[in-house]
Amino acid sequence: MIEIRGLQKYFGALHVLKGIDLDVEKGEVLSVIGASGSGKSTLLYCINGLEEIQGGQVEVDGQNVHAKGADLNKLRQKLGMVFQQWNSFPHLTVQENVALAPRIVRGLDRKAADEIAERQLAHVGLGDKLRVYPGALSGGQQQRLAIARALAMEPDYMLFDEATSALDPELVGEVLETMRMLAEEGMTMICVTHEMGFARDVSDRVAFFHQGVMEEIGPPSQIFGEAQSPHTRGFLANVR
Amino acid sequence: MSQPISFFSGFQPSDLLFLAEAAWRTLLISGLAISIGTFFGIIFGWLLYEGRIWASLTLAPVLDIFRSVPLIIQLVLFYNFAPILGLNLDPFASGVVILAIYTAALVANVARGGIEAVGQPMRRAARSLGMSYWQDLRYVALPIGGRAVFPAWVGVALGVMKDSALVSVLGYVELLKASQILITRTQEPFLILSIAGAFYFALSYPISRYAARLEQRWAHA
User: Fold this and answer.
1) Residue A39 in 3-state DSSP?
2) What is the pLDDT of residue B32?
3) Residue A205 belongs to what H/E stretch?
4) Model ipTM?
5) Which residues of A are less than 8 Å from B127 in CB distance?
6) Minimal Cα–Cα distance from B132 to chain A, Å?
7) Residue B154: per-residue pLDDT
């Protein structure tokens, strides 16, 4: 379980997150929506310790992420992350992209790591691309590669940071389909997204962020049907 | 019976062997200097990239000096002043030291550019998988950055190999010095310099061809 209490984040003088309280249960799918610059991506970076925080605390399975001496490398193995830019390692084949971290971080031998890579790549529908380099893949395929790469660490949570925002429109569907599949398999997911259809259909809860504050959180029916906050209603009216 | 004594004698086949040996010495001194210089250059480049305050205050200006002062001046100064510091280096060792520092100064900036080219998002992706700082550097940042700046590094390496001719001022008989010796004896500068040039070309061309092949293989088009 992920527990966030009073999270404060500044970039210099810019107050990005203004006291966020949020719990994410095992097995839950949470979508985070809101305008650009509302702090939703930063929230993800604070959860896996890629950004330091200036106040409050984040606990993952009871472990304080920002405590002095916290083993972030170990913790991040639990928290798979997929970025807006897929960041495939261009010098490695598709299979090596996925097998690298299991081999060097988890210490598996080459054969075991290759097998995990094969399995995860087949899972996201890239089983026929093992020997190809990422440069030869489409954006959608590279994003699915990024998902397989994160899954290869066998994480308990998956963080998606606008995973489809940089994709050409016709490639969005295949990535959303993969994310939907993960959700159905019971993966705990926090998805920062601009895909309202996905947020409505797949998530258990939707959180709306506005200027560094979590304005509203609730089941999709509430957020999309009877939003309490005028900011939420205004945002949704604009994206539709 | 005996040959008439002359100060000059024409170019002989054995002179070709003499030049070939000298070319080998050029290869040796530049190969050594480039290897050592590249090794330290990458470390310096990493220090500059990390931007520790002392690195930008001490390392950067020192590297700038070695990049800016003409190599021939560095060689003569070092060769003549090193003994005062108790270092008795022969021309070969002096040449290796100065060429290696010179290479390191050039490679440092190439290496820093390479790490910069990888970019923060890629580094974060690696870290998000649980890689440590060093694993990210070793398996992600350096391989990707290295490929990005490889052509620039080849340029430095070929440049240093040609610049190794300057070590001739210390009396080390590499290709240029050997050519000067032969020119003095044969009085055939055009022929000798053409042959020496051909040797330099023969040393450089395989390197640039091999580099081009590597780049092609990395292109993954």
Assistant:
1) coil
2) 96
3) strand A205-210
4) 0.90
5) 50, 76
6) 6
7) 95
Name the 3-class secondary structure at A63: strand
Going from the C-alpha of A123 to that of each of A145, A151, B215, the distances in angstroms are 10, 10, 33
Q: Name which of A83, A105, A136 is nearest B130 (Cβ-Cβ).
A: A105
pLDDT digits (tens, 9 = 90+) for A94-151: 999 999 999 999 999 999 999 999 999 999 999 999 999 999 999 999 999 999 999 9
Q: Provide CB contacts within 8 A for B137, sequence distance 6+.
A: B46
pLDDT in tens, chain B (221 residues): 566 667 778 888 888 899 999 999 999 999 999 999 999 999 999 999 988 788 888 899 999 999 999 999 999 999 998 888 888 888 999 999 999 999 999 999 999 999 999 999 999 999 999 999 999 999 999 999 999 999 999 999 999 999 999 999 898 888 999 999 999 999 989 999 999 999 999 999 999 999 999 998 888 65
Contacts of B130 in chain A (CB under 8 A): 73-74, 76-77, 101, 105-106, 153
Question: Cβ of B124 and A50 within 8 Å?
Answer: yes
Walk across the sheet containing A14-24 and list its strands: A14-24, A2-11, A55-60, A63-64
At A21, phi and psi to the nearest 5?
Answer: -120, 125
CA distance B50 to chain A (A): 17
Helix spans in A25-168 (H): 40-47, 72-76, 94-104, 110-123, 139-151
Is A91 in Cβ contact with B147 (below 8 Å)? yes
Please answer yes or no on whether A79 and B147 come within 8 Å at the CB atom.
no
Give strand pairing partners of A32.
Answer: A192, A207
The β-bridge relationship of strands A2-11 and A63-64 is unpaired
pLDDT of residue A178: 93
Which chain A residues touch B if contact means CB-CB below 8 Å? 48, 50, 73-74, 76-77, 79-81, 83, 85, 87, 89-91, 100-101, 104-106, 133-136, 146, 149-150, 153
Q: What is the pTM of this model?
A: 0.85
Looking at chain B from residue 130 to 189, which residues have their Cβ under 8 Å from any Cβ of chain A? 130-132, 135, 139-140, 143-144, 147
CATH architecture of the domain with range B14-219: Orthogonal Bundle (1.10)
Residue A32 backbone dihedrals phi, psi, to 5 degrees:
-115, 120
- With cut-offs at 50, 70 and 90, classify the pLDDT of residue A238: confident
Question: Nearest CA to CA, how far is A233 from chain B (Å)?
Answer: 33
Tokens of A219: 């089941």
Q: Flag if B130 and A76 touch (Cβ within 8 Å).
A: yes
Q: Closest Cα to residue B157, out of B211, B196, B198?
A: B211
Residue A159, min C-alpha distance to chain B (Å): 10
